[in-house]
Design goal:
The protein is of the alpha/beta class and 261 residues long. The chain has an eight-stranded parallel barrel with strand order 1-2-3-4-5-6-7-8, surrounded by five helices. The longest helix has 22 residues. It is globular. The two termini are 13 Å apart.
Length: 261
């Protein structure tokens, strides 16, 4: 089964600064889809780049704030209005980009308790689910490992599943990042079986250095790609890795695994 890969522009084509330029470089390299952060201050340029290239925006990160909201506001007590504003901004841009998935980043734990964060997180996600259903957009939540982001609230797969069950919306799914899964929990094979009904998006990178899948590390990506295919996942897979040298040089991993863009 041929898998579909999207360039994550937080990590790939960073040889240039702007997201719009990265979209053009991804298109020239052969990518048919990209994942992007919210392109603050260059929204119009990004919409134009997507239109000119015809590239698909497979995933858009929610608009972010500053300081304690720099990695999202979804779980941050007292920041509910910020979350709603960021969600509205992101949905408006997603519609212009014809993007149907938004990553709802949880934010950092600073002064409030984790219990307060959890209550805020669930309440905000229930609000978001209602809005997303009306817009026919899927929101995804992603457990991120403590080594990469020590204070990130959503850092546990059991918690993610419990939250998804609590919100109980077809418009809220799990973002399964294989890199984070390995560092949080491991058990990749059983994880696919246990989480299959929740998965709305997948991302990849080798562990522990977050390079290309064919670099030396903990995971056999030939096997991982077989797991993804057997799971019946047919949507875009985000290449959220740090190129060991340059982005284009690193794309040789596709040939190794018999994959194409």
């Amino acid at each position: 089964m041929a898998l579909k890969f999207a360039a994550n522009l937080n990590f790939l084509f960073t040889e240039v600064a702007s997201i719009a330029e990265r979209i053009s470089l991804a298109h020239k390299a052969g990518f048919r889809a990209v994942e992007i952060p919210y392109p603050r201050s260059e929204e119009a340029a990004v919409v134009k780049a997507r239109e000119e290239t015809g590239i698909k925006v497979a995933l858009l990160n929610i608009a972010l704030g500053t300081n304690e909201l720099q990695l999202g506001a979804t779980s941050v007590p007292g920041a509910e209005k910020h979350f709603q504003t960021h969600l509205t901004e992101t949905i408006n841009l997603a519609k212009q980009l014809q993007c149907q998935k938004i990553h709802l980043m949880s934010g950092l734990v600073k002064t409030s308790s984790r219990e307060e964060h959890l209550a805020t997180y669930v309440a905000n996600l229930k609000y978001a689910a209602g809005v997303l259903e009306k817009e026919n957009i899927v929101g995804v939540i992603e457990p991120i490992n403590q080594y990469s982001v020590p204070s990130y609230f959503m850092n546990c797969y059991d918690m993610a599943v419990n939250v998804l069950n609590d919100v109980n919306s077809k418009n809220l799914k799990l973002l399964l990042d294989i890199f984070h899964r390995q560092l949080i929990r491991g058990n990749i094979s059983n994880g696919f079986q246990e989480l299959s009904q929740y998965i709305g998006h997948i991302q990849i990178a080798q562990v522990p250095h977050r390079h290309e899948p064919d670099q030396a590390g903990e995971l056999d990506y030939g096997y991982v790609f077989e797991l993804i295919a057997k799971a019946g996942y047919a949507d875009w897979i985000g290449c959220e890795y740090k190129p060991k040298t340059t982005t284009n040089e690193g794309l040789k991993w596709l040939d190794k695994y018999g994959q194409k863009l």
